[in-house]
What does this fold into?
Amino acid sequence: MAARSERFRHRSVALKLNLRRMEGSMDLCEAFVWVVISFLPGMDCFPMILCVTLNPCLDKTLTVPSWRRGDLVRGVAVREVVGGKGNNVARALKRLGRSARPVTFLGGWVGQHCGELLHRDDGLDPITVLTEAPTRVILTVLTQSTTEQTAFFDPDPAITPAEADALIDRVQQALSQPGVSALTLSGSSPSPATHGVYSDLVSLGRTRRIPVFLDTYGPALEGIWGFWPSVLQLNRREAAGQVGKSAVNDQDVLSLLANWHRHGVTCGMVTDGPNPALVQVREKRYWAIPPAIHALNPIGSGDSLLAGLVDAWLAGTDTEPMICHAMGCAAANAVVWDAGAIDPEQAKRFAGEVILEPIGRVG
It folds into this structure.
């Protein structure tokens, strides 16, 4: 029976790949095949999403009583979670019912601990490349009974060219296996050896007709050439850096979105925290106004937004519900402490409160 199930799985994957080649109907066919397969008993065929992080961290939160600079402060609680934007995306996708697998560098005892936490606390099975440099720690000091927090970042690790190549090889091996449905690339590049990694991975994904979702900035974004991602997301500060300004206005953002579209980006989004986001999906442009919430911790909201885009994209969701779903996931992240630890029902409620205002079509 197991062998028969395995043969059926490979036939279903082959059927899926053939259907994806049908011009103009790829998303609908992909969704149809996976919905049908998911209802067949005994079929372990759920598509996997690879979530790449080049600059992971151990995100440690120390909760302390009210304090002043220079005090000797004793903490009242410590909370640890594996950070890095792609790890947050994977955590949010798992909460949304998707199969996600982090891909990242880990080094030293901190890296070993991060691997253990991903397995034990998040139920994730990461693909890891061991590094000589230790994984960084981000210490956030949270004042008890408030939302006041201060974060201290370790220096970025120095990744070697051999380690960068090893990560690309591991992703290429994973993409060569059946069942990978999407590739997400999130966060900054820690060292010169990794600046071109995302560009290489975008090319690997797009040549295999796998949708690629990119959320990065600085040298990693500047290194994108040739193939561009299916989806590209930035915040306003990152967008300003890309165009070489200290700040951007709405027209700057719209021009940036139009430029991405010309390079083949299907969905571009520039967020602005609790303020409206600007979105372009193919030729359509929107203001996306998020719901009013009482934010507890906004860190990870952009990662949860990206997870929402992936989730809706793979479900074949129409443009406007896809945007609302993504914005709902971002809001659901902001009302919890741990990045990516979203409640799907809460995300659904928030999605219903998102307001979309069409701006007009491009061209």
Residues 2-20 form the longest helix (19 residues). The first strand starts at residue 48 and ends at 53.
